[in-house]
Write a structure and sequence with these properties.
The chain is mainly alpha-helical and 234 residues long. The chain has helices spanning 3-26, 38-47, 49-81, 88-116, 125-158, 165-187, 193-219. 77% of the residues lie in helices and 0% in strands.
Length: 234
């Protein structure tokens, strides 16, 4: 198998990640607001337990597939940088942090869904509240990590190391939205529609950025431009 096919497999991992991510997010109804009562939270996880478990499983697979894409992206950037190691380490490191925090962020939801499946042994209200709040905290940290990944990857695009500068500028905007929503979420003690909307726009923007970047890399494998040492996918 030649390197062009391997590069296309790596780019395909990015597309698969987007599909798994979006399905995992929207397969279950939206969770209760941050200031919802414990009874409402418990009822939500009890009523939608199967969908929430499936969402957790798909999100975990999305994180694993994302690791493949990040490894591919490091290879692409290293080749484009000619061994200079400019942005490729930052993109790779931030990508690893996204996958790691992504898996960790699935733990609170998975735990609450597990507890909801044992009605004969109900969890205390304090435990339910703690796990539910922990879900918001880990999601905020995930947004911060994703923002760093998008910004570093977009900087490489602006430098014409991959895809296109225009997509790079879009990615920098998406990264800023992710940082804003993640930072604001850590300060919230009650529901904020503004932060919720900014977070959703950031999520969809991240998915779009990933999809466009992966599609471009699939259509134009970097190895095809390697002999000329021209900027990748410019």
């Amino acid at each position: 198998m030649n390197e062009t096919k391997w590069e296309r497999y790596g780019a395909s991992a990015g597309i698969a990640f987007v599909v798994l991510l979006l399905v995992s997010v929207f397969i279950a109804p939206m969770p209760p607001h941050l200031n919802a009562s414990t009874a409402k939270i418990t009822s939500y996880f009890s009523d939608h337990r199967r969908a929430l478990v499936t969402s957790t499983l798909l999100a975990s697979f999305a994180s694993l597939v994302f690791l493949w894409f990040v490894a591919h992206l490091r290879h692409v950037l290293q080749r484009a940088e000619g061994g200079a190691e400019a942005l490729s380490p930052a993109v790779f490191g931030s990508g690893i942090s996204v996958a790691t925090v992504g898996i960790i962020s699935a733990l609170p939801t998975a735990t609450l869904a597990l507890m909801a499946g044992r009605p004969g042994d109900p969890a205390s209200a304090a435990t339910v509240r703690m796990m539910f709040d922990l879900n918001f905290v880990t999601q905020a940290l995930l947004a911060l990590a994703a923002g760093l990944f998008v910004v570093t990857g977009s900087m490489a695009m602006v430098r014409k190391e991959m895809v296109s500068p225009n997509l790079g500028w879009l990615g920098i905007l998406v990264g800023a939205l992710l940082w804003i929503s993640g930072s604001a979420s850590l300060y919230l003690t009650t529901y904020s529609r503004v932060v919720d909307v900014v977070g959703l726009v950031g999520l969809l923007g991240f998915a779009l950025w990933m999809l466009l970047a992966s599609g471009a890399m699939y259509q134009h494998p970097e190895i095809e431009r390697a002999p000329s040492h021209a900027p990748t996918f410019a």
